[in-house]
Amino acid sequence: DLNEEEALYREMHEELGTRDFEVVSKHSELLKYDFPPSVKPRGNFVGQEQRWFLARFNAFEDGEVPEAGDLEFEAFKWVTPAEALERVVHFKRAIYLRVLCDFGLLECRA
């Protein structure tokens, strides 16, 4: 059984092809969202519960992601926290806002 940080390193390697980052902060709570009725997830999933981490990448200084075989994403782009909030699918927006505020990446009202 992997602990949360081991799982983070595994996922980042699978999805972005790197383990070259450091954990800056770990959110204190597991955060959950439900899929809206218009979204048809695979299987019997109704949503997700996730632990969020703030990480600093040591790789990608030139902004390019290295080739790593069978990555889960076709493309990726570095964006500001505010831009990430604008781009995220509507049913995840509240979670993104909370995480970005809690990590101090956006100025938010208390």
Describe this protein's structure:
With 110 residues, the chain is α+β, with helices and mostly antiparallel strands. The chain is built from three helices and two strands. Helix 2 runs antiparallel to helix 3. The longest helix is centred in the first third of the chain and has 13 residues. The radius of gyration is 15 Å and the shape is globular.
What is the strand tally? 2
Give the overall average pLDDT: 85
The portion of residues assigned to helices is 25-40%
Largest sheet entry: 2 strands, antiparallel
> How large a portion of the residues is in β-strands, by DSSP E?
15-25%
Through-space gap between termini: 37 Å
Radius of gyration in whole Å, from Cα?
15 Å
Strand order of the largest sheet: 1-2
Shape: globular
Number of DSSP helical runs: 3
Describe the structure concisely for a colleague:
This protein has 110 residues and is an alpha+beta fold. It has helices at 4-16, 81-87, 93-102, and strands at 21-34, 47-57. It has a two-stranded antiparallel sheet.
Protein topology:
Blueprint: H1 4-16, E1 21-34, E2 47-57, H2 81-87, H3 93-102
Antiparallel strand pairs: 1-2
